[in-house]
Amino acid sequence: MSAAKIKLKKGKEKSILRGHPWIFSGAVHLVSKELNEGDVVEVYDYSNTWLCLAIYDGGSLAFKIVSFHQKELDATFWVNTFQKAFDYRASSGLPNKSTNVYRLIHAESDGCPGLIADVYNNNLVIQFHGQALSKIKPEIVEALNSINKWTCIYEKPPSILRDKQKQEPKLWKGKLPEEITVTENGNKFLVDIKKGQKTGFFIDQRENRKQITAFTENKTVLNAFGYSGGFSVYAAKNAEKVITLDSSKEAIELADRNAALNKLNNHEGVCADVFEYLKSTPENHFDVIVIDPPAFAKSKRAQHTAIKAYTRLNNEAMKKLKLNGYLLTFSCSKVINRGLFEGAVAAAAIKSDCTFKIVKSLQQSADHPVLISFPESLYLKGMVLQKSETF
Ligand code: SAH
Prior knowledge:
Blueprint: E1 4-8, H1 14-17, E2 22-23, E3 28-31, E4 40-44, E5 50-56, E6 63-67, H2 75-91, E7 101-106, E8 115-120, E9 123-128, H3 137-147, E10 152-155, E11 170-173, E12 180-184, E13 187-191, H4 206-216, E14 220-224, H5 230-236, E15 241-246, H6 249-261, E16 267-271, H7 274-279, E17 286-291, H8 303-320, E18 321-331, H9 338-352, E19 355-363, E20 381-388
Parallel strand pairs: 1-4, 9-10, 14-15, 14-17, 15-16, 17-18
Antiparallel strand pairs: 1-3, 2-6, 4-5, 5-6, 7-8, 8-9, 10-11, 12-13, 18-20, 19-20
Helix pairs in contact: 2-3, 4-5, 8-9
């Protein structure tokens, strides 16, 4: 069966020619036949010049581009795509002796709309977001299996499903251990794939966690929204005292166990709401504070409220920081770009009556690639700020 064709409205080819992988339904002038989610389409501009191959994903972000070249989307295509992703990670040294947890496939950034594949000590955990690739799951799994000898391949449905589409977990290969111990930059972490958040661990913070020890020597550290203690384990190696704060009891239990696994006895897990906890913390209290909240804005409509929440949260944290202390602040909201995030934090600083220097700008680790042609792929933004007196 030949692929359907879509023709774009005049001028709507511009972003595609710049390498952007999305086509909104509003950009489409004509569709050659009725489409079902998962259908492959050939995309033409208004003057009938071939542009790219895309997959219909439904909704207003309707088409996701899978190739800017005329190709057959067969088994070889997917094997080549995954091999390229594997080689890219290998070229940046992943995995290696001190790190065996990393992201192999980061959706559109690896040419695979909606597909996430994370490696946990050679166990592969996959997730399908949206419908683009959901219809060809067996082919995807087979291609993933052909590029490496994975111990296990486990499909974990995303926690928030678009269109409330029901997905069940599925074991495609091998046996999934109840708990996996992974090593990240030489630190050990227990990961509960089935019950944990995301695919089990926030792998995107790996490079940022590595930075923290530069600021924590003999210091008191609050790791707020700390989950299983990722930042805490690194910090506790040279800090005086580290607190992991999270509202999830399971997360705090895991954080305590992770501290013990790394033979750290200067760690305390606290299960509480960050906003409440900060409210009852005295001013000028901690030397270092990490704030890495869940996405405050899930859609453009929530942008304004989210910006206000980032300002309020950062301001609270800034007040609780000692003079010359460091704040590591993050936003993982896809719809809040770096400019908006920095603006929210700047507003928090103004209210605090102190000066904050941007010591470092941070972002997601390189195994979650950011494409220069796809600014939306930069979803995790962060800064290290130092608090000083105003001059
Ligand atoms: N920094 C972590 C990832 C944080 S994810 C890491 O490196 O692994 C965000 C975390 O915030 C989740 O664990 C979630 O349970 C927690 N959380 C969400 N809302 C919260 C709140 N109001 N107070 C405390 N924790 C919260």
